[in-house]
Amino acid sequence: MGVHSQGAAGGVKPFYTRLYIQVLIAIVLGIVLGVLAPDLAKNDWIKALGDGFVKLIKMVITPVIFCTVVSGIAHISDAKKVGRVGLKALVYFEIVSTFALILGLLVANLLQPGAGFAGKPDAAAVAGYLKQAGEMKSVDFVLNIIPDSVVGAFARGDVLQVLLFAVLFGFALMVLGERGHAVRRLVDDMAHAVFGVIALIVKAAPIGAFGAMAYTIGRYGPSALGNLAFLIGAFYLTALLFVIGVLGAISHFAGFSIFKFIAYIKDELLIVLGTSSSESVLPQLMEKLERLGCSKPVVGLVVPTGYSFNLDGTNIYMTLATLFIAQALGVPLSFNEQLIILGVAMLTSKGASGVTGAGFITLAATLAAIRPELVPGMALVLGIDKFMSECRALTNLTGNGVACVVIAWWEGELDRTKLERGLNRQIDPSDVETAITTG
């Protein structure tokens, strides 16, 4: 393939102009700076590079979700189809999430990563997270989906609240029929413009990845892993088994390769690796899935919903970390208690969507509900949570991408020709500008 690659329009693009190459180089440079000059890497301006990029992406997430969902629903003549897609998505999410939770329990019981651990937890270190976890009640979570005002939902960037309003607005346009044509066209044009903004923002992805990775290594240092490297390794191994085993089997059943799919979204995966935030690539992922052959209604409903209800990486983390803490503190958990962990974690993982540090907060909620005496042990994994959050985000992103393709196939809304072209690299998946100007 040489040093050049074939572009979507048939032109030749130098390898260094490819986004994933630039992000990969930026991550390596960030690691080097963090190791060689940790004081410089911990500078607030270096940290701001990563935080700023994530904020730029979050700035356009709610407009993207609103326009995509409204457009998708408004162009459907059958209201039952929207409900059918949503129901299929929720059923799929619950089944796959259960597999993720079970896999985390199996690996924790098999490898015993916390056995013989000599750490001493500091209860004060997790007090803030425990307070947030205590505020996560099921009733409050359901009521919080309903915004106090539509403007407030957009201003706060609350994905679930915007999603609810978008669904209602889309149904309203559907009912209007021809009278709503002008509004539908306006929403479509707005979506086109928003994706144009995204095409500009993603050019800064290497800068964001460099800043985030440099600060992480400079702040925590390579030695931050210490005795907890085994837990990190076990978590990454479990996530890899889940992606290749569970998601791979699901992908094979749906007629596509998980490895080709991962290669197709490699740009997004590298950005997530650098920023530790799956939200940083939500708009690009939705655009890519449409170009992969998934219909707009399916993408608009499944992907935003999956970001709240399909947290595979977070589920693996919760069961694995729970058993690690129990083993480290010498608190045995019976088989029945581990089954309770599955049920409680299934609920708490939904309640923390959209919350900063959601993985750690859901862990606090799960431990408090099962064995409160384990909560202080969260301090044992607090120092390495940053390293584990990257794996959580990568797994969540991959799981949501696969879910969208599978549900599109299940619904009969998957264009196999586009799927084959995309996965076989007959088009350039990173060429966002071409997709926007031609789509």
Notes on the protein architecture:
With 439 residues, this protein is mostly helical. The protein has a single domain (4-438), classed as Proton glutamate symport protein (Orthogonal Bundle). 74% of the residues lie in helices and 1% in strands. α4 packs parallel to α15 and α10 (205-220) packs parallel to α13. The two termini are 28 Å apart.
- N→C terminal distance: 28 Å
Proportion of β residues?
under 5%
Task: Describe the global form.
Answer: globular
Structural class: mainly alpha
Mean pLDDT: 77
**Tally of strands:** 2
Instruction: Please name the fourth-level CATH homologous superfamily.
Output: Sodium:dicarboxylate symporter
- Give, in order, the helices and strands: EEHHHHHHHHHHHHHHHHHHHHHH
Number of domains: 1
Determine the fraction of residues in helical runs and give it as a percent range.
over 70%
For the biggest sheet, the summary is:
2 strands, antiparallel
The CATH architecture is Orthogonal Bundle
How would the blueprint of this fold be written?
Elements: E1 4-6, E2 12-14, H1 19-36, H2 38-41, H3 44-74, H4 79-111, H5 127-134, H6 138-144, H7 150-156, H8 159-176, H9 181-201, H10 205-220, H11 229-254, H12 258-264, H13 266-275, H14 282-291, H15 296-309, H16 312-328, H17 335-351, H18 358-370, H19 379-382, H20 385-411, H21 416-423, H22 432-438
Antiparallel strand pairs: 1-2
Helix pairs in contact: 1-10, 1-13, 3-8, 3-9, 3-10, 3-15, 4-11, 4-15, 4-16, 4-17, 4-20, 5-18, 10-13, 11-16, 11-20, 13-20, 14-15, 15-20, 16-17, 16-18, 16-20, 17-18
